[in-house]
């Protein structure tokens, strides 16, 4: 069953190439749908969308994907594949939070954290998107978490650790929460960073009907920013796509619906169907 919330990655017209590459590394990748615009896939059981969007945006470590594996051998195998033509952010090593951990960006600039631990600690979700509040959003992780708790009706907080000292003392070192059954982690950066959230990685919310689209759109854009085609930014700069869960079917049923979608900000389902 497809998640209600899942990440979308913006590629420079290499989405299918990228997911074929991930399939060669993870061996648990299913391509659910592939067309010139998007690729829908499951990676280690986690839903993803790849967007062939051109060079306008690139992923960066402000949103990374934490892969949780229970053995060092599994982590090393994935690390060695992702490291080819990529670059290391934190080398594989033993850290206070994990006996074997590393952070890198792959050849497509997609950022991955590899974490040895128990799947039970992340609600059996093998890949956990991790939001890093940095740049102009530095120190706002706790505030953003409280905002998401107010917005999402099915929200479960699963602990907070704060930095004990330094310039970031009291800011969030790590927190984990569940939105509509989907596990997400978040943190404030421990050091200054030259980047922040962009459309390079966004979070999709599939809505059951127009009222749900209206609810999430107005909730997330209040003090945020509206964009086109169901895209918006929340007050903390995180990009969201608020879409009907049958958007693909609507677009396939009416060739003119895609043109109408391009003119919309918030998606109006009835207008698309017409």
UniProtKB/TrEMBL annotation:
Keywords: Methyltransferase, Transferase, Ubiquinone. CDD domains: PhnB_like. Pfam families: 3-dmu-9_3-mt (PF06983). SUPFAM superfamilies: Glyoxalase/Bleomycin resistance protein/Dihydroxybiphenyl dioxygenase. GO terms for molecular function: methyltransferase activity. The keyword Aminoacyl-tRNA synthetase does not apply. InterPro entries: Glyas_Bleomycin-R_OHBP_Dase, PhnB-like. The keyword Iron does not apply. Residues 4-114, 126-243 form the PhnB-like domain. GO terms for biological process: methylation. This is Putative 3-demethylubiquinone-9 3-methyltransferase (Glyoxalase superfamily).
